[in-house]
Amino acid sequence: MKLDVISLDGKKGGSIDLDDEIFGLDPRADILQRMVRYQLAKRQAGTHKTKTRAEISRTGAKMFRQKGTGRARHGSARVGVFRGGGRAFGPVVRSHAHDLPKKVRALALKHALSTKAKASDLIILENTEMKDAKTKALLGTLGNLGFSSALVIDGADVNGNFQMAARNLKHLDVLPVQGINVYDILRREKLVLTRAAVDALKERFK
Fold first, then answer.
1. Which residues of 32-43 are buried (b: 16+ CB within 10 A; e: fewer)?
2. How many CB atoms lie within 10 A of CB 194?
3. How far is CA 91 from CA 41, 43, 77, 103, 203, in A?
4. Are 26 and 169 in contact (CB under 8 A)?
5. pLDDT 10s digits, 6-41
6. Angle at 155 between CA 151 and CA 156, to 5 degrees
């Protein structure tokens, strides 16, 4: 697969050959769904917690005598049926993460890249070099290129001026190639890779 390479000022800078084993697969929604679910589950805090009857600070004495009152038998005021009692089967602090094989995770990333390539939502940039870290200037540049919602993946070191200029843009995410992931690729309309990022991905999937 061949794509044109453009610069930030919109000029064409040649073309690049993309590996069909990475960018030319027929996307599978089931693999993408498994990966997104894996990512979202892993980042859940899991800090929700309610007190059980064992954690309630209340007397342990029997509430009233066993027989003769006409009421139901009760031995503790800490149980969940009473106001102020513990919660039965409430949430506890835990990890929501689950396992997903490494090969499936790698395959999901390929399918996410192929999804963008197949939909013509993949753009290759020469680089992300900017003279000044100006958000207004970057906003104008992206408008000329037609980016309203994009994930920009640079090489190992993201250009500092570009990253600072992009920080206040709500629909623009900037990541180094080490941080590329399926969820962020799919949640943005366009995927923008630099030449350095494409080369790094080729090395990664060798």
1. bebbbebbeeee
2. 23
3. 16, 17, 21, 33, 44
4. no
5. 988 888 878 899 999 999 999 999 999 999 999 999
6. 115
Q: How many CB atoms lie within 10 A of CB 10?
A: 10
Which two tokens mark 186? 């799919």
Domain ranges of the chain: 2-45+96-204, 50-90
Q: Which residues pair with 177 in a beta bridge?
A: none
Which is it for strands 2-6 and 12-17: parallel, antiparallel or unpaired? antiparallel
pLDDT in tens, 89-146: 999 999 999 999 999 999 999 999 999 999 999 999 998 888 889 999 998 888 888 8
% residues pLDDT > 70 (the chain): 100
Name the pTM for this structure: 0.84
Residue 38 CA neighbour count, 13 Å, CB half:
18
Question: CATH says 2-45+96-204 is which class?
Answer: alpha beta
Q: Determine the Cα–Cα distance for residues 11 and 24; give it in Å rounded to an integer.
A: 26
